[in-house]
Write a structure and sequence with these properties.
The protein has a domain at about 1-85 and about 150-230: P-loop containing nucleotide triphosphate hydrolases (Rossmann fold). It has helices at about 40-50, 70-75, 95-100, 115-120, 120-125, 135-150, 165-180, 195-200, 225-230; strands at about 1-10, 15-25, 30-35, 55-60, 65, 80, 155-160, 185-190, 205-210, 210-215. It is built from nine helices and ten strands. Strands 6-7-8-3-9-10 form a six-stranded mixed sheet, with helices on both faces. Strands 2-1-4-5 form a four-stranded antiparallel sheet, with helices on one face. The protein is of the alpha/beta class. Helix content is about 35%, strand content about 25%. It binds adenosine-5'-triphosphate (ATP). Adenosine-5'-triphosphate binds near residues 34 and 41. The site of adenosine-5'-triphosphate (ATP) has 12 residues, from β2 and α1. It holds the Pfam family ABC_tran. It comes from Mameliella alba. This is Urea ABC transporter ATP-binding protein. One of its GO terms (molecular function) is branched-chain amino acid transmembrane transporter activity. Keywords: Amino-acid transport, ATP-binding, Nucleotide-binding, Transport.
Amino acid sequence: MLSLSDLTLHYGHSQILYDISMEARPGAVTCLMGTNGVGKTSLLKAISGTHARSGGAMVLDGADIARTTPAHALARAGVGYVPQGRDIFPLMTVKENLETGYACLPKSDWGIPDETFELFPILKQFLARRGGDLSGGQQQQLAIARALIAQPKLLLLDEPTEGIQPNIIKQIGEVIKYLRQKGDMAIILVEQFFDFAYDLGDHFVALERGRVIHNAPKADTPREVLLKKVSV
Ligand SMILES: Nc1ncnc2c1ncn2[C@@H]1O[C@H](COP(=O)(O)OP(=O)(O)OP(=O)(O)O)[C@@H](O)[C@H]1O
C-alpha cells in the first residue's frame, strides 16, 4: 500500500528526517514511535503532502508519488490524515465538519454512511452542535470520522489519545481494531502512549533523531526492547 525509500525532509536548512525507509500494509497497524521531536509528525506531513519531502521515493498503491504532490491530491489519492491537535473546524457544526470529507469524493458518493454513527454514536447526537463546543475526545472522534468519510486507503493518525479521557481512548482503540479487521486500509499510528500502541500495533517503526532505529513486525519486537528504544 505505502512504501517509502530513503525519504528525507528539511525545514529550511535544518534536516529533520534522514533516509527513512518503511512500509504500511492494508489490514495492519504500523506504529511510528519515538520520543518528542524525533520527527514523527514531520514524517506524517511528508506522507500526507502537508510538507514536501526533500528526497527519496514514495509509492502509494503502486503509483509513484512525486515529491511535490500537494496535500489535496494525496487526499484524493486515498491518504486520510488526522493531524495532532485534530484541526476540526470549531465554528462549523459536526455535520458540516463531516461534510468537508466529501471534497475527495465523486458527488455520487456524498453522504454520511451509517458506519460513521455506528463507530461514533455521540456524533449523531451532536450533529447540529458546533465542533468547538465538543470535548477534546469528541473532537478527536469527529476528526477520525471526517477522515473516514473520504474513504481513505491509508489512514494517518497522529497521537489520537493525547489529552483524552480513558473511556474515549478505549473507544478509539476499538475503532482502530475494527478498521484493521476490515482488511483494506493501511493504518499508520503515531503514538506516545506505549501500551495503547503496543496493544494495537502489527508492525513497529521507531525513530531517533530523524533516523529509523527499529523496523520490525510485532513478533520480532519484544515489549521491553521497544520500550527502551522509545523512552528518553
Ligand atoms: N515548521 C517547522 N519548522 C522548523 N522546525 C520544525 C518545524 N516543525 C517541527 N520542527 C522541528 O522538527 C523536529 C521534529 O518535529 P516533529 O514535530 O516532527 O517531531 P515529533 O516526533 O512528532 O515530536 P512530538 O512527539 O513532540 O510531536 C523538532 O526538532 C521540531 O522542533
